[in-house]
Specification:
CATH class of the largest domain: Alpha Beta
Radius of gyration: 20 Å
Largest sheet: 9 strands, mixed
Number of helices: 7
CATH topology of the largest domain: D-amino Acid Aminotransferase, Chain A, domain 2
Shape: globular
Distance between the termini: 30 Å
Strand content: 25-35%
Bound molecules: pyridoxal-5'-phosphate
Structural class: alpha+beta
CATH superfamily of the largest domain: D-amino Acid Aminotransferase, subunit A, domain 2
Order of helices and strands: EEHEEHHEEEHEEEEHEHEEEH
CATH architecture of the largest domain: Alpha-Beta Barrel
Number of domains: 2
Number of strands: 15
């Protein structure tokens, strides 16, 4: 595979970063994961906006513009188009290499910019009848208070996810100290309660998922169900008729079991089928619209 590192495209084996890179020393960096369908990044503008918001939040300025990134992505996808039908672009920017390890931000950083492609799960385009489902557990949200920054420092998320992972589950759903759902270890959470689609509101305690926003937009435009962005108690989650997790990698994944108990009938629900169907239509139409 060919990857991008600081202005060059090189085979992955040849891409090397110094041990004095602040990304390595401190996890001092931010990232994006952009799904690519039929060669076109989905929601690229939204991902770029979030990237620059993350960079602002960590006071890191870049000379590259979103247009520069667009050009780089195009070349990267071209170089890797044989590797899989559908890919994601992983883009990471750190505060770069320093002379010595010190906490304070360097005055004139030279950011390390890295991008690679990762094959998307092959099951992502199967029919809705064959679409994957997952089980989840709840875990205390022990992360920091700026989860809105898409930081590469992910230890809190990793530790939370590990118990679910060991047990073969799809996700750990995180619960704050007041018993409210925040998000998944690497996803946003939706619950169906009555005829409403509910997801926790944007705040510094969650990452504003691009998939979350798209699902809300599609569901609102469709109008069959009411959408509510509001606090969601874990007890309500346990009573929900459907639970979904959303992310760029997993789209809208129905959770059929939570902490060992069936969610609804223990199958993907009707609301999921409706919204996931609309999501796929949107996703698969975008490339054609862009081709005009
Ligand atoms: N929340 C967290 C903590 C994540 O890591 C992710 C994605 O990996 C998401 C939410 C979903 O974000 P997106 O839909 O932009 O992929």
């Amino acid at each position: 595979a060919q990857v991008y590192l600081n202005g060059e495209f090189v085979p992955v084996e040849e891409a090397k970063v110094s041990v004095l890179d602040r990304g390595f020393l401190f996890g001092d960096g931010v990232y994006e994961v952009i799904p690519v369908f039929a060669g076109k990044p989905l929601q690229e503008d939204a991902h770029m906006e979030r990237l620059y918001r993350s960079l602002d939040a960590i006071e890191l300025e870049l000379s590259q513009t979103p247009e520069d990134f667009h050009g780089m992505f195009t070349r990267l996808l071209e170089l890797n188009k044989e590797s899989a039908k559908h890919l994601t672009i992983y883009l990471q920017i750190t505060r770069g290499v320093v002379e010595k390890r010190a906490h304070g931000f360097p005055e004139k950083p030279t950011p390390t910019v890295f991008a690679m492609t990762i094959p998307l799960e092959p099951n992502i385009r199967t029919s809705l009848d064959e679409a994957p489902t997952g089980r989840a557990i709840t875990q205390k949200d022990r992360r920091w208070q700026r989860c809105d920054i898409k930081s590469t420092s992910l230890l809190g998320n990793l530790i939370s996810f590990q118990k679910a992972y060991r047990e073969g589950m799809a996700e750990s759903i995180l619960i704050d100290c007041k018993g409210r759902v925040t998000e998944g270890a690497s996803s946003n959470v939706f619950a169906i309660i009555g005829d409403r689609i509910i997801t926790p509101p944007l705040s510094k305690r969650i990452l504003g998922g691009i998939t979350r926003a798209l699902v809300l937009e599609i569901a609102t435009r469709d109008g069959c169900y009411l959408c509510e962005e509001r606090q969601l108690k874990v007890e309500e989650l346990r009573e929900a008729s459907e639970i979904w997790i959303t992310s760029s990698n997993r789209e809208i994944l129905p959770i059929v079991e939570l902490d060992g108990a069936a969610v609804g009938a223990g199958n993907p629900g009707e609301v999921w089928r409706h919204i996931a169907g609309l999501y796929r239509i949107y996703r698969d139409q975008v490339p054609e619209i862009n081709d005009d």
